Amino acid sequence: MNPGVLGGLMAWLATLVFLRRHRVWLLFYIAGAVGFTLFGVYFVRGSPVEGLIERLTAWHAHHLASLVNIETRVFTNAPGTLLVLVVTQPVGWTVVRIGLECSGVLELIVFVSLLLFYPAMGWLRKAWLGTLGVLAIYTANLLRVLTILVLLAWGGKGMIFVAHTIIARALFFGLMLAVYWPIFTRTTTLLVRRRLEG
Amino acid sequence: MSGEQVMGFALFWGVWLLVPLLVDGVTALVYLVGIWLSPHPVRRSAWLRSRRAEPPPLVSVIVPMHNARRTLRRCLDSLAAQDYPPDRLEIICVDNGSSDDSLGVFSHSQTAHRSLSVQWVSLPVANKARALNAGIHMARGSLVICLDADVRLDWQAVSTMTGAFMTNPGLVAATGSVEVEPVRDGRGSIFTRILTACESLEYLGAFRVGRRYQTLTDTLYTLSGAFSAFRREALLATFLYDDATVSEDTKLTLDLRTQQLASHSLGCVDDAVAYVEPIRSLKALYAQRVRWQRGQLEVAAFYPPRMLGGLLRSLRSFVGRLTISDHTLAFPRLVWTFLLPFLFLLGYPTDLVLMAWGSLYLCYVAIEGLQTLTIWAHVPESYHRDFARFWAVVPVMPVYRFMLYWFRFSGILLTLTEPAAWKVVDPFTQLGAALGGSRASPPAATQDLHRANRKTAGSA
After folding, report:
1. Which residues pair with B91 in a beta bridge?
2. Concatenated DSSP letters of chain A
3. How far apart are the C-alpha atoms of B242 and B232, rounded to whole Å?
4. pTM for the complete prediction?
5. Chain A residue at shortest CA distance from B429
6. Residue of A nearest to B326 (CA)
7. How far apart are the C-alpha atoms of B242 and B130, rounded to whole Å?
8. A110 and B339: CB-CB below 8 Å?
9. Nearest CB to B335: which of A27, A34, A120?
10. What is the pLDDT of residues B220-262, one digit of tens each?
11. Contact A50, B346 (CB under 8 A)
12. Which residues contact B197 (CB under 8 A, 6 or more apart)?
């Protein structure tokens, strides 16, 4: 590991211990969640984990698209790249690269980092809620990719900006809200209620 | 670099910051349209014309206080200056556990305003909710006004509020408009003046526009603890103020909502004005917003459980929508605020990232401009003379609201980790004390509010 990164990691951990010990909760949470995200992105970027998620997403999207009669191909030599057959005029293939933007990797890291340092629940609860959340976000992202494929296949290549940046993103945002709400908000209000009643 | 690229980047990665913006923007638009389309009720003049025919109702004003020596005189003087007949006004000051000379101030004021009916009640414990409830049980008036001791009433506030109830038999409870006391020019540092202008604009928006819109759509969330009025019988049909939460005013509002008949309503009488002193420092602002956030979470937790039964059900309830906006959306916003500037590390051009940030800021300024325009259109013309200072802080308002977001986020964390407190130490003071090796780096809370219930003022 790069000595600078190792030093940064140690300094970050020391800062977290210090802030936690002195109960400076806001700074602890910001340092924890943001630091974990930045280190997470650093370690996952270009790693086999990122490649695996991208390939898995492409593979799942490929099979699910066939269920709605959208023809796709997965590149053998670049498994994170999908070919989508656009059926409108002019008929042809469009390359969809499942990269950083479409793999949901960043959103997964952000979610895990927010949950990891949230002082509302124990580690066991965090573990299973985290697992559920990761699976849910992966599924939500898959739905986002499928939405892009459907809009591309039926609407043509000109749809790419609207499909990718607006419609699919809005759908993903709504689905993420459905993940964040029970895990963060509902858990919090139930906990607060228990404390007030107890 | 094309505009489409910047827009694409801002829309795609900035979505977590854009959605709160959209919520604010859409709300501002809805307020603008809704309020311009609705006629302003002419309550006071109609009632004043007719009030010669019948005697005005007896109004009981309850003033809970805890160590209010500094502000009580101003509050009682403003009550004495009302244009309401003094023989139809009874004032009940309920001290709860004061250790200062509030009683001396009260006695002096009683001597100075002999025409007023003023009573003093003393409770041994510091508990605002209990003080209010004691006052309510003592009140003889058909209309009960609850007033914080650090508030100054406008000279027409009581008659305006009473007029609203007299002309609308369906109205069972109403909040007045709480505004920040106008500051004389040239006082305080530039920073303090900007902070005060931002706070004043925020209050004007919250009461003159926000609560009025909530009245029109029957979604009023809080009858302000600082200045609200109730029909006594409606109040006595509830469990009164509940000291289990630090937002007893919001809890009572929601209790009233669930208990009232369909023909009854809650509202905002925005031309009945009470003034609060401007916040003195960022530390005080921090403590206030942390307390409000705690109260909001506690009330959301208390609200009938079916509201929390599902996201879709929450979206249908205005309390649920508020919780989603202030709690659920706050989480991703926290990380993305810091992550977005670092996306150049992932291969995005720095110019693109900077321009996207600039675009987001400009959008926020535009929304603030729209909100300020809505306020300007709705406040009485007398406010327009002093409006230049509000226009001047429009570009600062996004920064002010962003700061409040962090204060409130801290409130979320402190609700989960520390007991409720009236005084809260801000994280930088805590950090400074911790770095200095001081043992006086308290865990944010210095006093347990739920146990001691040491409260003197309600949330706006």
Report:
1. B61, B118
2. --HHHHHHHHHHHHHHHHHHHTT-HHHHHHHHHHHHHHHHHHHHTTSHHHHHHHHHHHHHHHHHHHHTT--EEE-SSSTTEEEEEE-SSSPEEEEEE--HHHH-HHHHHHHHHHHHT-TTS-HHHHHHHHHHHHHHHHHHHHHHHHHHHHHHHHH-GGGHHIIIIIIHHHHHHHHHHHHHIIIIIIHHHHHHHHHHH-
3. 17
4. 0.87
5. A24
6. A185
7. 8
8. yes
9. A34
10. 889 999 999 999 999 998 889 988 888 899 999 988 887 766 5
11. no
12. B389, B390, B392, B393
Cα A79 versus chain centre, distance:
19
> Which 8-state DSSP code applies to residue B84?
S
What confidence tens digit (pLDDT) does each residue in B299-324 have? 888 875 454 456 777 777 778 888 88
Q: Which three-class secondary structure state does DSSP give residue B174?
A: strand
Instruction: Please indicate if any CB of chain A lies within 8 Å of the CB of B314.
Output: yes
Min Cα–Cα distance to chain A from B251, Å: 13
| Tokens matching residue B116 | 């007023």
Identity (one letter) of the amino acid at B294? R
Instruction: Identify the pLDDT of residue B460.
Output: 34
Q: How close B218 gets to chain A, by Cα (Å)?
A: 24
Q: In the structure encoding, which two tokens stand for residue B145, read together?
A: 């006004």
The single-letter code of the amino acid at A153 is A
ipTM entry: 0.89
Which residues face B153 on adjacent strands? B274
